[in-house]
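Sample pair:
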Amino acid sequence: MQATLSNEELLQRFGKPRVELIQLVERHTLTVQAWLSSRSPQAARFVGKGVKASSTGFKIPLLNLALGSDFPKESSEKEIDEEVKAVIEFFATRNVPWYWWMSAGPSPQNIAQILERHGLAYDAPPLPAMLASLEDERSFPTHNETIRVWRAHSLKDLQAASTIRRIAFKFPAGEATTYFEDMPADWLDDSSPARLFLAGEDESKPVSIGAVIEGEGIPGIYVMATLPEHHRKGYGKAILTRLLAEAKSADGKMIALTASEAGFGLYAQFGFYHLLDFDFYSVPK
């Protein structure tokens, strides 16, 4: 995997050493993912000593998450085992598929072996986390400047965003069909940490979405999606250019994201560098 920097380059570009940047991006990502997976009318949460879990109730693994492993060092193996059991039971009661989204520096360090002992399995591939400076003077890739990009401002926009995300992410039939419009304040109000944008030939024909969401003091890029028939037409580039401008206008210094294999190359073109990987565990089907 390319688009990496040395420790010295990271310090020069971001003003922090690698270990601090990893901790910051981990905290940001897990915080925002917890927020996203708790935002639905049917949402439920589990809060333990070392694990926080959120469930939208939709039968979509990425919308039902146990996040990280941060047990106090004095935690006994029995306490950790009991909490892992409680997390498994939480999702079993919800009757939803789910992921345990693992941070790069978990506590205890052998949490993977503990999860496997309780029937969870490593669910490859890992998910790259990337970071970009918003203070760089850089040239972004060119895109079709006739593409219209706008911030979501109506229920109609939210309905279109739900459709685009459902199709692009191949959600199961009947799941999350009204995801965005069920939470209008989260996506339309200025008081929310999220800013949702759409792109299309004009505002009557949106085909792509993306959002900037604040967490732990830095912004991140989320819910990037384009309808399959409109891939490679510049919509992703147009949305990303607008999202970065939005984050910079809010005095952001750096911005994070997690990248699919398909999106990694695009993000690298916009100055994002690979910083760490998140691992996933799940209950085998």
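The first helix runs from residue 7 to 14.
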